[in-house]
Amino acid sequence: MTTSTPRHGPAPPPMADSKLFPLGRHSAPPSGDYRWVSPWGGPLRFTHWLAAITITVLIVTGFFINRPYFLTTGGPPQYLMGYIRLTHFVAAGLLVMAGVVRTYWLFAGNQFERLPALFPLRPRDWVNLWKQVKYYLMIEDDHGIHYIGHNPLQQLSYTFTYFVGVVMVVTGFAMYGQAAPGGFWYTLTEPLVLAVGGIQIIRLTHHLSTWWFIIFPIMHVYLVLRKDITEHGGGLSGIFSGGHYIRADIEYVDE
Ligand code: HEM
C-alpha cells in the first residue's frame, strides 16, 4: 500500500437544493481531509476483470447450452451449438487461468489481497460484520467501523464467490469429461461423480450455482456504487487504477 500526505483544501460547496431529490436521503457532502491508498495490485485487478468477462460469457453460453436456440428464431444455423460450447470451454479455460493467478496472489499480494484477508476469523470481525449488516440495511447510520480493504461481510461474500467458482470449475470439468469416457477428465472426476450420485447431480449443481453469479454481481455493483456515493472515495475507479481516497481523520481496522 502506498500513502501520500493528506490533501488539504477549502471545504466543498454545500449540496444542491434538496428539493431536487425528494425521494432519497442525501449522503453527506465530502468534507475534511482525504488521503490516497493503493490496496489493489495489478494482478488482482487483471484477474477481477478477466473473471468478470469470462463469467459473463459462461452465463450466456451456459444458458444457451441448457436451452438451445433461445436466441434464434427459425432453424438453427449450422453447427451453432458447437461454437457455443467451444466458446463456453475457452471462457472456462481463461477463468481457470484467472484462478491460478489469483491463487498465486493470495500468497504474493499485499495485506489486503492475501489469504488471511479473505476470512473474518477474529471475534472482533464477527462483531463488525453484524454492524456492517445493520449499516447496509440502513438500521444504523454510521457504524464507526472502517476498513481500507474488505470489511468482514465482503470477506465472507467474496470468499463464498471464490468457493462457488471452484464448484463451477470442478462440476464443469466433470461434465466435460463425459464426452470422452476413459479420458483424462473423465478418469479424474469419476470418483466425484460417483460419490455425489451421478452426473445429473453434477449438472444440477453447475446449473443452480450459476445463479450465484447473477445475484452476486447485482449486490456487488450496488454496494460499490453506494460506497462511492456515501464515502466520496472514488472506490469504483480503484478497480481500474488500484487506488482510491479514504478519510484521513479516522482509524481503519485493517491498517
Ligand atoms: C462461472 C462459471 C460458469 C458458469 C456460470 C457456467 C454455466 C453453465 C450453465 C448454465 C450450463 C448449462 C447447465 C444445464 O444444462 O443446465 C453449463 C453447462 C456446461 N458447462 Fe458451464 N459454467 C461455468 C463454468 C464452467 C467451467 C469452468 C467448465 C469447464 C470445462 C464448464 C463446462 C460446462 C459443460 C461441459 C457444460 C455442459 C455442456 C454440454 O452439455 O454440452 N462450465 N455451464
Helical content band: 55-70%
Please identify, by name, the CATH architecture.
Up-down Bundle
CATH homologous superfamily caption = Transmembrane di-heme cytochromes, Chain C
Number of strands: 2
Q: Which CATH class applies here? A: Mainly Alpha
N-to-C CA distance? 10 Å
Element order, helices and strands? EHHHHHHHHE
The portion of residues forming beta strands comes to under 5%
Major sheet: order of its strands? Answer: 1-2
What is the 3D shape?
elongated
Q: Write down the oligomeric state.
A: single chain
**What is the alpha-carbon Rg in Å?**
22 Å
**Class by helix and strand content?**
mainly alpha
CATH topology: Fumarate Reductase Cytochrome B subunit
Low-pLDDT sequence parts: 1-9, 15-22
Average pLDDT confidence is 86
Number of helices: 8
Which ligands accompany this protein? Answer: protoporphyrin IX containing FE
